């Protein structure tokens, strides 16, 4: 038996060689099967709503149904003898149904639903492949909407290849990107937010909550219509223009892809679509997610794989996206969804609790995505650290390009909450930053939307608390603000430069946004007050927020290229002093974590030569104390032990970044 690549990279996987090889064999078998099956990843081109020879054609897969009727204005939204009725025709025993209509019944902008009947019951439903679903602002009822605009969107040019080999990702939410409350639009995000993202230096926009979801406060993670762009932000044409502008700015754009579960709603979602609870999901208890109160896909069912792979293709081809962040991967690949599990032994990655069908689906989806667009990239949200998630399929992996460093945010929060500043250990921080599978690429982050949700606190809020509201004016003397801002910069710099091969920030955290996220709900009086971003704070040069934004932009500009070098060389670490130094991509990073002690003539090993200061976190432009000259070049000095060193002044809570001249 040949040795899989991930086993070669990690000999501790040797006892699991047979399981890993079986994953490779299954992937090759199913890839061949689906490749030979004409249209297997193009289900959306058959099912759903299509304009064919001037007629609107609707097709559904509903094998358990005995009748499907159309509900719309023409039928007075009824399906009884009181008015005209329109029925689908069942085409075959497989369960395909079709309806062909003249434009006087359904045309662009028309609203409709289906009434699906089965043995013993019936229910109104949204079509499974609906591409546009809207909610009535008064009745709050969701309906499918025919969307065939007379003038389809004209893309600005041939599809551009926007490569992000080192993704520096801006995680955003269109709806909460406004400052004045309400739900933001694609147009507003395109005009007002894209230029901010570009100016700060990010090369990738990652958008949440694009797939239609009935409950706005779910953050888009309770998806109902997988092929429908959320209509609360605007039209498909509005979003295509946003994508076009993003590409024009040289930025890639990816989306949160939620294939880990589906909302349990029956009318708006897929649950009991044709009366059966197993159409796309597991039957019975296994089909119910115990923590999320949602439905669990059956990744071992051909039709489910057909649906989900087609969904990947649809979003890439219809909207020219550059990839996906796969949400909830841990929940997908374990039968217990990883709930309460401690992944403390390799047995747990290859035992009976693993859903091998889900692992296979992830491998197939990544293969499809990269075949559609070779420059595309995918990111896995997996908290279990499954070996091989971000390794090629032929080596025994799932084919993701990157995985998120999900332990880092928790670690930063833990030491902020539990340790005094002077007890932070440089060696422990370094170990956590580097505790990852080096044969796989990672996207590092200190916080995402998860850390900003109501009931939690952002990192800067944990560091500063009430000083966020009272002490953020430039020039106001505040030990709380100085401490919080100093450590905030160090945490982000360490995460950015030593935590992975890419980086992610949630919208607003680039300038230390002061508040949590709380979407409108009954418990807060349906308020949008915390479902917004206060951009004016970053724009006001009289506030420290503007200086944090300047720090982030310069950090990305000066240090971003270093992430392309996967080798990080530790040069010095001293827990008592709180000092660590490392080299990456030709840059030398020297960090003094000590909250009180500054050091004069501190020796840091460095390659012989003259080193120029690139930036330092204590710069007054970044709301530092300005204790380091901004123009500084230092020669190494040979020491008796034969090691060349830089003799540096290291202020407390400060990082210095050098490049050799």
From TrEMBL:
GO CC list: cytoplasm
GO molecular function: 1,4-alpha-glucan branching enzyme activity; cation binding; hydrolase activity, hydrolyzing O-glycosyl compounds
Any Pfam family: CBM_48
Signal peptide segment: none
Glycosyl hydrolase family 13 catalytic domain span: 180-536
Record's keyword terms, sorted: Carbohydrate metabolism, Glycosyltransferase, Transferase
GO biological process, one term: glycogen biosynthetic process
Catalysed reactions listed for this entry: Transfers a segment of a (1->4)-alpha-D-glucan chain to a primary hydroxy group in a similar glucan chain
Top-rank EC class of the record's enzyme: transferase
InterPro entries per the UniProt record, alphabetical: A-amylase/branching_C, Branching_enzy, GH, GH13_cat_dom, Glyco_hydro_13_N, Glyco_hydro_b, Ig-like_fold, Ig_E-set
Lineage: superkingdom: Bacteria
SUPFAM superfamilies linked to this entry: (Trans)glycosidases (SSF51445), E set domains (SSF81296), Glycosyl hydrolase domain (SSF51011)
Active site feature: 327 (nucleophile), 381 (proton donor)
E.C. number(s) listed in UniProt: 2.4.1.18
Entry function: Catalyzes the formation of the alpha-1,6-glucosidic linkages in glycogen by scission of a 1,4-alpha-linked oligosaccharide from growing alpha-1,4-glucan chains and the subsequent attachment of the oligosaccharide to the alpha-1,6 position.
Family: Belongs to the glycosyl hydrolase 13 family. GlgB subfamily.
Stated name of the protein: 1,4-alpha-glucan branching enzyme
Species of provenance: Candidatus Thalassospirochaeta sargassi
């Amino acid at each position: 038996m040949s040795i899989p690549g991930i086993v070669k990279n990690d000999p501790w996987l040797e006892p699991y060689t047979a399981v890993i090889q079986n994953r490779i064999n299954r992937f090759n078998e199913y890839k061949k099967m689906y490749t030979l099956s004409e249209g297997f990843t193009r289900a959306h081109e058959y099912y759903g709503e299509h304009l064919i020879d001037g007629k609107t054609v609707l097709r559904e897969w509903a094998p358990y149904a005995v009748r499907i009727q159309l509900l719309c204005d023409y039928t007075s939204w009824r399906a009884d003898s009181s008015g005209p009725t329109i029925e689908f025709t069942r085409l075959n025993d497989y369960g395909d149904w079709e309806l062909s209509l003249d434009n006087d019944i359904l045309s662009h902008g028309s609203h409709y639903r289906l009434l699906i009947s089965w043995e013993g019951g019936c229910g109104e439903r949204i079509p499974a492949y609906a591409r546009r679903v809207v909610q009535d602002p008064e009745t709050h009822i969701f309906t499918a909407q025919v969307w065939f605009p007379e003038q389809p969107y004209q893309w600005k040019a041939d599809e551009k290849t926007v490569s992000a080999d080192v993704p520096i990702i801006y995680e955003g939410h269109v709806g909460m990107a406004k400052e004045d409350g309400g739900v933001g639009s694609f147009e507003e995000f395109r005009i007002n937010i894209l230029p901010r993202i570009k100016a700060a230096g990010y090369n990738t926009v990652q958008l949440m909550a694009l797939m239609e979801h009935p409950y706005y406060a779910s953050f888009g993670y309770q998806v109902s219509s997988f092929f429908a762009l959320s209509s609360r932000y605007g039209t498909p044409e509005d979003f295509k223009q946003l994508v076009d502008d993003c590409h024009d700015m040289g930025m890639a754009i990816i989306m949160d892809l939620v294939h880990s579960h589906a909302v349990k709603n029956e009318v708006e979602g897929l649950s009991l679509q044709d009366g059966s609870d197993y159409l796309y999901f597991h039957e019975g208890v296994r089909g119910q997610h115990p923590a999320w109160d949602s439905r669990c896909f059956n990744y071992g069912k051909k039709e489910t794989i057909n649906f989900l792979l087609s969904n990947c293709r649809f979003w890439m081809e219809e909207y020219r996206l550059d990839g996906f962040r796969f949400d909830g991967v841990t929940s997908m690949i374990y039968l217990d969804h990883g709930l309460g599990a401690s992944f403390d032994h390799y047995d747990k990655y290859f035992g009976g609790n693993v859903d091998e069908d889900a692992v296979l689906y992830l491998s197939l989806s990544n293969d499809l995505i990269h075949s559609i667009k070779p420059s595309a990239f995918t990111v896995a949200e997996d908290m279990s650290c499954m070996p091989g998630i971000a390794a090629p399929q032929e080596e025994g992996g799932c084919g993701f390009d990157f995985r998120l460093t999900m332990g880092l945010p928790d670690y930063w929060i833990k030491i902020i909450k539990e340790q005094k500043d002077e007890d932070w250990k440089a060696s422990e921080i370094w170990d956590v930053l580097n505790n990852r599978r080096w044969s796989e690429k990672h996207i590092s982050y200190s916080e995402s939307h998860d850390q900003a949700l109501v009931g939690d606190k952002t990192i800067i809020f944990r560091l500063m608390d009430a000083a966020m509201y009272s002490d953020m004016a430039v020039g106001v003397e505040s030990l709380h603000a100085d401490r919080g801002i100093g450590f905030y910069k160090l945490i982000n710099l360490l995460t950015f430069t030593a935590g992975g091969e890419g980086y992610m920030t949630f919208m607003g955290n680039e300038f230390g946004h002061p508040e949590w996220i709380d979407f409108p709900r009954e418990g807060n009086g349906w308020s949008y007050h915390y479902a917004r971003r206060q951009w004016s704070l970053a724009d006001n040069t009289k506030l420290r927020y503007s200086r944090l934004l300047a720090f982030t932009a310069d950090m990305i500009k000066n240090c971003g290229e270093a992430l392309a070098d996967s080798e990080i060389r530790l040069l010095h670490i001293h827990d008592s002093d709180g000092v660590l130094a490392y080299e990456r991509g030709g840059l030398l990073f020297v960090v003094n974590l000590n909250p009180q002690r500054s050091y004069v003539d501190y020796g840091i090993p460095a390659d012989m030569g003259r080193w120029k200061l690139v930036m330092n976190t204590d710069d007054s432009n970044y709301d530092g104390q300005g204790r380091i000259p901004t123009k500084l070049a230092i020669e190494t000095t040979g020491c008796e032990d034969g090691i060349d060193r830089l003799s540096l002044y290291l202020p407390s809570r400060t990082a210095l970044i050098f490049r050799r001249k």
